[in-house]
Design a protein that fits this description.
About 35% of the residues lie in helices and about 20% in strands. The chain is of the alpha/beta class and about 290 residues long. It has an eight-stranded mixed sheet with strand order 1-2-4-3-5-6-10-11, sandwiched between helices. The chain has a three-stranded antiparallel sheet with strand order 7-9-8. The protein is globular, with a radius of gyration of 18 Å.
């Protein structure tokens, strides 16, 4: 399948119902599904390159997390939080109805994965955490918080690409064409220009964080991480400002005792355009042994 099918699932928040769009690659009846969940301001189409490779062996499900892309916006922006995202993914898993579920989460998507995999009777068979863990570096969080939700409009695609290069240099795109692709997927038309395709209010909960809330959140995430029982792979961008080397090493010693693979020359976060990055995921999900990196 060269292009995915667009589908949606109805989810529940304290304010009512909302729709979450997801992209499905591969045989819709395949008994095994890989759910790929993007970062804070991204969309499900981030995983197109990986999905084209892996859809030969399983279904690939790539949601637009609520507030992003083709999914609805929440009425109460303070519900843009991990408990709501986890609840939405439970609805998605029920809709997918696969016998086996694997999970690949980039940044925010990885935190959602920790929340789900750390639950009793979790359906997750194997877990890949892409440049994220229970302990997040304040420098990286501050960098992201500085741009999330800021009102910005682009006159043309080139202007949007230049902006994306400035805030997402860690993605490590290898060509102008890759930067164009990774930018176009998160834009929508606004008259004769473009805006970013997410609810600007997704940044409000993040800006409400205090050091005390961050510390409490880390403690809860470690509790969930320590409860994970499925095989786990942690990918860390060599130059990441979100997942530190020390935090990544700690993740190999606690909870599921994750395998760790460092992606050279990349910051936050690997985006799976490079076949070598895709192979790290494929090898782990298929055999449990990622290639040496």
């Amino acid at each position: 399948m060269s292009e995915p099918q667009s589908r949606s699932v109805q989810c529940l928040s304290p304010a009512g119902l909302h729709s979450m769009r997801y992209w499905q690659w591969g045989n819709p009846d395949h008994p095994r599904a890989l759910i790929c969940v993007h970062g804070l301001t991204r969309v499900g189409r981030d995983f197109d390159h990986l999905a084209r490779v892996m859809s030969q062996s399983c279904r690939i499900i790539c949601p637009d997390v609520v507030g992003r892309g083709g999914s609805d916006w929440l009425r109460d922006p303070m519900q843009y939080s991990l408990p709501q995202y986890v609840a939405d993914m439970v609805s998605l898993i029920a809709r997918v109805d696969a016998r086996e579920i694997d999970w690949l989460g980039t940044s925010m998507g990885g935190l959602i994965g920790i929340g789900l995999a750390g639950m009793e009777n979790s359906p997750i068979r194997r877990l890949v955490l892409n440049d994220v863990g229970p302990r997040l570096e304040m420098s990286g969080l501050a960098r992201i918080a500085a741009y999330v939700g800021q009102p910005i409009r682009f006159q043309n695609l080139d202007e949007a690409i230049a902006y994306n290069r400035s805030i997402a240099a860690g993605f490590g795109m290898r060509s102008d064409g890759e930067w164009k692709e990774i930018t176009a997927s998160v834009l929508k038309r606004d008259g004769d220009g473009y805006v970013l395709h997410y609810d600007p209010a997704i940044g409000l909960p993040m800006r409400a964080f205090t050091p005390e809330l961050i510390a409490a959140g880390e403690q809860l995430l470690w509790q969930r991480y320590d409860a994970i029982r499925c095989p786990t792979l942690v990918l860390r961008g060599e130059n990441s400002d979100v997942l530190s080397p020390d935090a990544a090493i700690e993740m190999t010693r606690r909870g599921p005792r994750a395998r760790l693979a460092v992606v050279p020359g990349i910051g936050h976060a690997p985006m799976f355009f490079d076949p070598a990055q895709i192979e790290l995921v494929r090898a782990f999900l298929e055999s449990g042994q990622p290639p040496v990196s």
